[in-house]
């Protein structure tokens, strides 16, 4: 389906291939976040502590009673399925290209191995088209498919609900770090580079050799992920380094803190490595919302979280530059190593 056929480009190195039977993770926290809306201060504090513990111990957690309306979800999921059910020609009409990275794409690479998936990327906020686009600058303009009634509206509605949820989670993360509740909100203004990805993982003839998404960490601030009931998201467990499967929970979102939260928190929280396993008989759908700051943001450990005893562990880096370098490297197979926050890690030996 979708024109994917199993060739060498998909084959993972032996050490990165998924094991046939993977334990379902016991203990990934499932957190009811409804106390935030109820607003009782003591319950919100307890909730923030729970989010803090999950971010520290796993970098991943599942939220339920999150306030996203059922019909908003239903419309978005229907739009997603309708999109991938279109013909290859219809999908190709909104295909991404090197200068304009949004739209349909079936040839993403993670760490230089091709992923067994097709995607559609969109941004909730389109920047005004730049009068002159500098050489190499990416254009974040949506490519809406024609002949798919309601698609755009459903996803715009979904994006609004996601932003509210992501800001609520940012508040909980800020509180959990002892910061002002709205301390992180200023990073997510109108210039934010947040994007939504619709993922479709078709059945794969060799799920023992390929991955839907190769192992990676999310580079942004926070990811709010919908997954259907098929299962396939694997997280590397911090306590022992084992890969474990995240069990699908109905009416939930999976939240993971990204590299930016890791840097802001000066390593109190760590973004976890994850990947997607595929299977030979069932297609799978997922939909991550990548909550990202504006491209001008400088990312560095927050002042309140560093001290003489706990000096900053990272040099400041420009998010926009990091983001476009990363996006370009997912586009095709490259010889160079992907940019990582580790490249901005200070050599602490020289500080102490
Ligand atoms: O499909 C999933 O469950 C996760 C996808 C993912 O990790 C990503 O797109 O960054
Ligand atoms: Fe991811």
List the helices and strands and how they pair.
Blueprint (H helix, E strand, L loop, with lengths): L29 E3 L1 H5 L2 H17 L2 E5 L5 H15 L3 H5 L10 E3 L3 E2 L2 E2 L3 E5 L28 H26 L18 E7 L11 E4 L5 E6 L5 E4 L6 E3 L7 E5 L1 H6 L9 E3 L7 E8 L6 E2 L17 E2 H13 L21
Helix pairs in contact: 2-5, 3-5
The protein binds 2-oxoglutaric acid and fe (ii) ion.
2-oxoglutaric acid (AKG) binds next to β7, β9, β13 and β14.
Explain this structure to me?
The chain is α+β, with helices and mostly antiparallel strands and 352 residues long. Helix content is 25%, strand content 18%. It contains seven helices and 16 strands. The strands form four sheets. An eight-stranded mixed sheet has the order 1-2-12-9-14-7-6-3. Helix 2 packs across helix 5 (151-176) and helix 3 crosses helix 5. The chain starts with 29 loop residues before the first strand and ends in a 21-residue tail after the last helix. The protein binds 2-oxoglutaric acid and fe (ii) ion. Residues 216, 218, 274 line the site of fe (ii) ion. The site of fe (ii) ion has 3 residues, from loops.
């Amino acid at each position: 389906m979708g024109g994917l056929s199993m060739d060498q480009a998909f084959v993972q190195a032996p050490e990165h291939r998924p094991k046939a039977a993977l334990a379902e993770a016991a203990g990934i926290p499932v957190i009811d976040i409804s106390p935030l809306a109820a607003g009782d201060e003591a319950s919100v504090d307890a909730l923030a502590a729970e989010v803090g513990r999950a971010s520290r111990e796993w970098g991943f957690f599942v939220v339920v009673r999150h306030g996203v309306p059922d019909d908003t979800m239903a419309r978005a999921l229907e739009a997603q399925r309708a999109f991938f059910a279109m013909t290859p020609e219809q999908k190709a009409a909104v295909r991404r290209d090197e200068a304009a990275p949004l739209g349909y794409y079936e040839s993403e690479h993670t760490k230089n191995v091709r992923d067994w998936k097709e995607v559609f990327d969109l941004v909730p906020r389109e920047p005004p088209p730049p009068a002159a686009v500098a050489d190499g600058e990416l254009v974040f303009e949506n490519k809406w498919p024609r002949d798919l009634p309601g698609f755009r509206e459903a996803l715009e509605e979904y994006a609004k609900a996601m932003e509210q949820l992501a800001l609520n989670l940012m508040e909980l993360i800020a509180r959990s770090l002892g910061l002002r509740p709205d301390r992180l909100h200023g990073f997510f203004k109108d210039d934010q580079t947040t994007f939504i990805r619709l993922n479709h993982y078709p059945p794969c003839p060799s799920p023992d050799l390929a991955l839907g998404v190769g192992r990676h960490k999310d580079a942004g601030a926070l990811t709010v992920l919908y997954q259907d009931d098929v299962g396939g998201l694997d997280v590397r467990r911090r306590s022992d380094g084992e890969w474990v499967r995240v069990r699908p929970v109905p009416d939930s979102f999976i939240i993971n803190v990204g590299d930016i939260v890791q840097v802001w928190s000066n390593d109190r929280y760590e973004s976890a490595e994850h990947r997607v396993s595929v299977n030979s008989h069932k297609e799978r759908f997922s939909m991550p919302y990548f909550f990202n700051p504006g491209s001008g943001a400088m990312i560095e450990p927050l002042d309140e979280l560093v001290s003489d005893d706990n000096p900053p562990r990272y040099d400041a880096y420009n998010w926009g530059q990091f983001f476009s370098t990363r996006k370009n490297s997912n586009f095709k197979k490259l010889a160079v190593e992907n940019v990582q926050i580790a490249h901005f890690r200070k050599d602490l030996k020289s500080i102490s």
